[in-house]
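Key result, reporting period 2: structure in, sequence out.
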């Protein structure tokens, strides 16, 4: 699903009451509707005269209407339009600098974890829901119907998530000679589901947002049985997973916000036209807060990890994204689907991995790879998104 770079601003319910801020038309950009702001065309004046023959009157009216249509609409030069244009430009730059904001927020969280102590579990859940809602209003039921017509893409990404990534994590851990506890933590990172922030990065990268949401949901539900199976097969130890808890969380932070967003798009289209340009930056702000909150909770183990762990974790996400792109391309998938799968594969739900390590691994060191992954996952995914944002998407075959 393509992103118009001019329509990337904050999703907020601003009091747009001035006439100049009301969208007068919609322009279709791929599967996305982008509001166009400007003055309405001047009504056509129809002249009639009883002294003229009917045919001449109709011909005159038709000529006048055609002349009106050929004249370009007057450009609005009001203060409201200028403010909106400046706001769009600023937000476009802010969204492009997504990786920088991620680094800054992570750095603040590492330096002063107490700065994000206010972002409690309730806010964390609400932040994830806001992220998904900002994506949901860009979708329609037809988007998902189109995706379901091509289940091969979902199957491919599921395999990348639960086959390639765990093996890559195990190989990197062995190559860098990590201690058993750190190796277990690495495998756990590779064995968990895709993160919700991948949907935002897919949006920025001009990928298929509906496909991304479906993949995130599929791997999240799949974590109920895939994560314990993989950990048992590779590590020789079963990692219990709270299946009911994951199901509830999936409904809260993925399915419900997406459904609400789609319903809003369908039943309140005029409202969506007004707020749609602000969706991407709401996602950026939500993601930065989520990353900072997760980093703040595990700041000490991240700082103590050292390059011996930082490098393999970075390579896990970076190589995972590259394989997730080139393997689907080689298999015949289009550019948009390949970008989507690359970001989905690279961006894991590291916070969930940290929670599992904390609850089910006896050694504290097993938590550290997930803590380090929180930073590198967000940074790698956002960098891929921004790079692809400025690479034109060729027509998929």
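The corresponding designed sequence is given below.
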């Amino acid at each position: 699903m393509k992103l118009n770079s001019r329509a990337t601003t904050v999703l907020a319910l601003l009091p747009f009451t001035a006439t100049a801020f009301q969208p007068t038309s919609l322009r279709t950009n791929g599967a996305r509707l982008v509001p166009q702001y400007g003055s309405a065309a001047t009504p056509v004046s129809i002249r009639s005269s009883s002294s003229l023959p009917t045919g001449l009157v109709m011909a005159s009216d038709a000529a006048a209407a055609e002349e009106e249509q050929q004249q370009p609409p007057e450009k609005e030069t009001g203060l409201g339009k200028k403010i909106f244009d400046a706001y769009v430009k600023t937000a476009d730059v802010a969204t492009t600098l997504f990786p920088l904001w991620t680094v800054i927020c992570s750095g603040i969280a590492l330096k002063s974890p107490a700065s994000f102590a206010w972002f409690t579990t309730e806010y964390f859940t609400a932040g994830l829901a806001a992220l998904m809602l900002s994506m949901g209003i860009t979708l329609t039921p037809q988007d998902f119907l189109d995706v379901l017509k091509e289940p091969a893409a979902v199957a491919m990404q599921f395999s990348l998530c639960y086959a390639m990534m765990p093996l890559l994590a195990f190989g990197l851990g062995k190559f860098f000679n990590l201690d058993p506890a750190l190796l277990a933590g690495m495998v756990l990172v590779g064995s968990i589901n895709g993160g919700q922030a991948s949907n935002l990065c897919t949006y920025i990268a001009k990928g298929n947002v509906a496909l991304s949401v479906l993949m995130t949901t599929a791997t999240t539900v799949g974590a109920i049985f895939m994560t314990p199976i993989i950990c048992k097969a590779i590590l020789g130890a079963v990692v219990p997973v709270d299946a009911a808890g994951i199901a509830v969380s999936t409904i809260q932070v993925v399915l419900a916000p997406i459904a609400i967003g789609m319903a809003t798009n369908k039943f309140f289209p005029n409202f969506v036209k007004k707020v749609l340009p602000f969706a991407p930056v709401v996602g950026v702000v939500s993601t930065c807060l989520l990353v900072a909150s997760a980093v703040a909770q595990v700041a000490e183990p991240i700082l103590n990890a050292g390059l011996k762990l930082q490098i393999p974790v970075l390579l896990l996400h970076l190589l995972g994204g590259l394989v997730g792109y080139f393997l689907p391309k080689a298999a015949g998938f289009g550019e948009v689907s390949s970008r989507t799968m690359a970001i989905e594969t690279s961006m894991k739900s590291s916070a969930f991995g940290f929670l599992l390590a904390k609850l089910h691994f006896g050694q504290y060191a097993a938590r550290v790879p997930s803590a380090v992954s929180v930073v590198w996952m967000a940074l790698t995914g956002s960098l891929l998104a921004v790079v692809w944002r400025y690479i034109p998407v060729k027509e998929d075959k």
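The radius of gyration is 25 Å. Residues 209-235 form the longest helix (27 residues). This case is discussed further under Risks and Mitigation.
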